[in-house]
Amino acid sequence: MAFFSDSQAIDIWKAKWRGDSVQSLISTYGENPFRFYEVWMELRNVGTRLLAFEELKVENPQLAAKTNPEPHLPKRRVVTMRHLGSDEAYSNPQLGFPF
C-alpha cells in the first residue's frame, strides 16, 4: 500500500467536504479506507487540510462557508471498566454498562 501524495491528499479533503462517500474514493484511488482516515485525522500529509481549505474558499466560497475544516474525530467511544464488579461501575453513568 502506498501513501497519498500531498496533491492527492488535498483532493481527498475537498472530496470529503463535498460529501463524496468513502466507497467512491476507494473506487477512484484503489486504496484501503484506512488510508483516507490517515489523511483526515492528519496522521499523514500534515498541513494539506489548510491548503485544501484555502483552495476550497477560492473554488466554492458557498461550500467553504458551510464547511467545518477541523480534522476528523472518530465518533465511537471506548468505554473501559476500572473496577469490575464494584458498585461504582453501576452508579457512575460515565462508565456505561458493566460488561
In words, what does this structure look like?
The chain has six helices and no strands. By secondary structure, the protein is mainly alpha-helical. The mean pLDDT is 82.
What does this entry show, briefly?
Helices cover 53% and strands 0% of the residues. It has 6 helices and no strands. The two termini are 37 Å apart.
The residue-averaged pLDDT reads: 82
Count of helical stretches = 6
N to C succession of SSEs: HHHHHH
Separation of the first and last Cα atoms: 37 Å
Give the tags.
99 residues; mainly alpha; globular
Helix-strand layout with pairing:
Blueprint: H1 6-18, H2 22-29, H3 33-40, H4 48-59, H5 61-66, H6 87-91
Helix pairs in contact: 1-4
